[in-house]
Amino acid sequence: MSALKKQRIDLRLTDDDKSMIEEAAAMSNQTITQFMVASASERAAEIIEQHRRLLLNEESWNLVMDAISNPPAPNERLNRAVKRLQNME
Q1: Which residues contact 57 (CB under 8 A, 6 or more apart)?
Q2: Does residue 53 form part of some domain?
Q3: What is the pLDDT of the chain when averaged over all its residues?
Q4: Is residue 35 a contact partner of residue 24, using CB atoms and an 8 Å limit?
Q5: What is the dihedral of CA 14, 23, 39, 31, to 10 degrees?
Q6: Which SS3 state, helix, strand or coil, does residue 57 take?
Q7: Domain-embedded: residue 5
Q8: Range of the domain at 81
Q9: Confidence class of residue 89 from pLDDT cuts 50, 70 and 90?
Q10: Is residue 66 situated within a structural domain?
Q11: Other CB atoms within 10 A of residue 39 CB
């Protein structure tokens, strides 16, 4: 049993956009709602993935790996922050 659909999005479309969406939905044997939800969800997932993934060139990658492998010694500001945190606990 599928989950009850509770959310709604209203759209304003040009006549051309509406016709094209209706035609594409019919060609893919889907209702307009099914077509629009599937299309929008797929595109949303792509955009979210693009923004969550970090791509680095080789030089940047090496700098990050070096910083992880050889972190700098804590400076005075970081030491003070650690002490404040310990005092809060």
Answers
A1: none
A2: yes
A3: 92
A4: yes
A5: 110
A6: coil
A7: no
A8: 15-88
A9: confident
A10: yes
A11: 15
Angle CA 33–41–25, to nearest 5: 35
Could you tell me the pLDDT band of residue 2, with boundaries at 50, 70 and 90?
Answer: low
* Residue found by looking up tokens 């955009």 in the block: 47
Q: For the purposes of burial, counting CB atoms within 10 Å of the CB of 37, is it exposed (0-12), middle (13-18) or buried (19 or more)?
A: middle
Q: What is the mean pLDDT of residues 21-40?
A: 97
The total of structural domains in the chain comes to: 1
Mean pLDDT across 23-38: 97
Query: pTM, whole model, 2 decimals?
Result: 0.58
Q: Is residue 1 part of a domain?
A: no
Query: Which among 28, 34, 42, 27 has a CA at the least distance from the CA of 2?
Result: 34
Q: How far apart are the first and last CA of the chain?
A: 48
Which amino acid would we find at residue 84? R
Looking at the predicted structure, is the pLDDT value of residue 63 above 60?
yes
